[in-house]
Design brief:
By secondary structure, the chain is mainly alpha-helical.
Length: 177
């Protein structure tokens, strides 16, 4: 659902959180997910009262962002399937699996940078009051409890764990989790 929208406003929001001292229970900046933010963007869009040109730009960027995230999800599903197939083989080479994971991580980092750039282009087209509204939105997202943030793919109905206690979720583990 998280697309990181604007760097300048985000910095202002982070600074505001630090000044308020509310960061103790906040969602860490680096744990904000592009797909989470994009799904929440609809509520933000309504409050911005975009003009016709801004509306067109928003639709273009939102469309490109969603397409990129759909492709990312499909790519990760293929990686998951290939990894499971490799692990089921009798001559599995874990180092090869590691390189595929490293490649996916690098691709994701590049995509996240592209997403930020697209949304920063939109930010450039906003007026000062609209930028402030975006900063407020991002600040609110940073203040949310990590467990309160909506997820595109949560744990499975059975708890998402194998008998060994390991999660089956295909998302890469976040630092510190």
């Amino acid at each position: 659902m998280s697309s990181v929208f604007i760097l300048k406003s985000l910095r202002a929001g982070v600074l505001g959180l630090a000044l308020l001292g509310s960061a103790a229970h906040a969602t860490p900046l680096m744990d904000m997910r592009s797909d989470d933010l994009i799904m929440m963007a609809a509520e933000l869009k309504k409050s911005l009262q975009l003009n016709a040109n801004q509306q067109t730009l928003w639709q273009q960027i939102e469309g490109r962002s969603k397409a990129l995230l759909r492709e990312r999800q499909a790519r990760r599903e293929r990686l998951q399937a290939a990894t499971r197939q490799s692990l089921d083989g009798k001559d599995v080479e874990l180092r090869e699996l590691s390189s595929a994971i490293d490649s996916e991580a690098a691709t994701t980092a590049s995509e996240d940078k592209q997403l930020r750039e697209w949304w920063l282009q939109l930010n450039d087209a906003l007026d000062d009051s609209q930028r402030r509204a975006v900063a407020t939105f991002l600040s609110e997202q940073l203040q949310r409890q990590p467990d309160a943030a909506p997820r595109a793919a949560g744990p499975k109905a059975d708890g998402g764990e194998h008998r060994s206690g390991h999660h089956r979720d295909s998302r890469p583990a976040r630092p510190g989790s």
